[in-house]
Design a protein that fits this description.
CATH class of the domain at 111-279: Alpha Beta
GO molecular function: 3'-5'-RNA exonuclease activity; nucleic acid binding
Keywords: Exonuclease, Hydrolase, Nuclease, Nucleus
Number of helices: 11
Helix content: 25-40%
Protein name: I20L2 protein
Pfam families: RNase_T (PF00929)
CATH architecture of the domain at 111-279: 2-Layer Sandwich
Radius of gyration: 47 Å
Organism: Piaya cayana (Common squirrel cuckoo)
Distance between the termini: 119 Å
Largest sheet: 7 strands, mixed
Structural class: alpha/beta
Length: about 280
């Protein structure tokens, strides 16, 4: 089978060539004009004289390099590109708990920079011996409430300590998580002079350290103890100081303490000796 196809193919081709040559002899078809061998490789002298088509490829024009921006050009170079990088950076926000500049000695403090804090704790952990934050109140210089929320500890509550804390089970129903409360409270305390009674316990419950220069602990103020007739180097309870110097009773009854009431009493005690105390700091 394959040889027959090949022969028929050759026969058709020869027949086609014969007919074409016959037509060319009659002048019906022109003979094919093929270039002589090697003609394609010869250069055209006319074009060479005119400077066109010399056989050399023209170089493709390259785009001019873009000037590098200050931010990329200044990598590793101190001082370069500061303007561009500074403009791109967002404005600096002070972090909660960051150290703030303390007022100079002898200069009266601004009321807007003063807050008083009081926290109530419940017992968690084995035997309820660990104190965890369950309520926090922050008041301003004039006693206005800036913050007062119940806080749900991360650990299960073992002892509500209701007689002292005033916290009961139903207070935890709508309480905010500790992490949320801590973030909100530290935002208020940041950069402020914080007044508290045995305030280190409050800071411990918040897992926070406030700058010493911005802390006023009414349990450690000798002038305050002198005013109340107590020894200077003894820590007196908030209840006794309030009774002697402010002539009112707090923390009465069996319903427990109120952190708002205690924070307000602390601020009022501070104001009793504010000028004298600030002068000696």
């Amino acid at each position: 089978e394959p040889p027959r196809k090949k022969e028929s193919g050759n026969r058709k081709h020869r027949s086609f060539v014969q007919r074409r040559r016959a037509l060319e002899r009659r002048g019906v078809l022109r003979q094919k004009q093929l270039p002589p061998p090697g003609a394609a490789s010869k250069p055209n002298p006319k074009r060479q004289r005119g400077g066109k088509n010399t056989g050399k490829a023209k170089p493709t024009p390259q785009p001019a390099p873009r000037p590098k921006s200050n931010s990329s050009a200044s990598l590793g170079q101190p001082g370069a590109g500061k303007t561009a990088s500074a403009a791109a950076q967002p404005p600096h926000k002070p972090k909660a708990g960051a150290k703030a500049k303390a007022p100079a000695p002898g200069i009266p403090t601004q009321p807007s920079k003063l807050v008083a804090i009081d926290c109530e704790m419940v017992g968690t952990g084995p035997g309820g011996r660990t104190s965890d934050l369950a309520r926090c109140s922050v008041v301003g210089y004039d006693g206005d409430v800036l913050y007062d929320r119940y806080v749900r500890p991360a650990a299960p509550i073992v002892d509500y300590r209701t007689r002292w804390s005033g916290i009961r089970r139903h207070h935890m129903v709508n309480a905010v998580p500790f992490s949320t409360a801590r973030r909100e409270i530290l935002r208020i305390l940041s950069g402020k002079i914080v007044v508290g009674h045995a305030v280190s316990n409050d800071f411990k419950a918040l897992k926070y350290f406030h700058p010493k220069a911005l802390t006023r602990d009414t349990s450690k103020i000798p002038p305050l103890n002198r005013r109340g007739g107590f020894p200077e180097n003894v820590s007196i309870s908030l209840k006794r100081l309030t009774k002697e110097l402010l002539h009112r009773d707090i923390q009465v009854g069996k319903s427990g303490h109120s952190s708002v009431e205690d924070a307000r009493a602390t601020m009022e005690l501070y104001k009793v000796v504010e000028d004298e105390w600030e002068q000696h700091l």
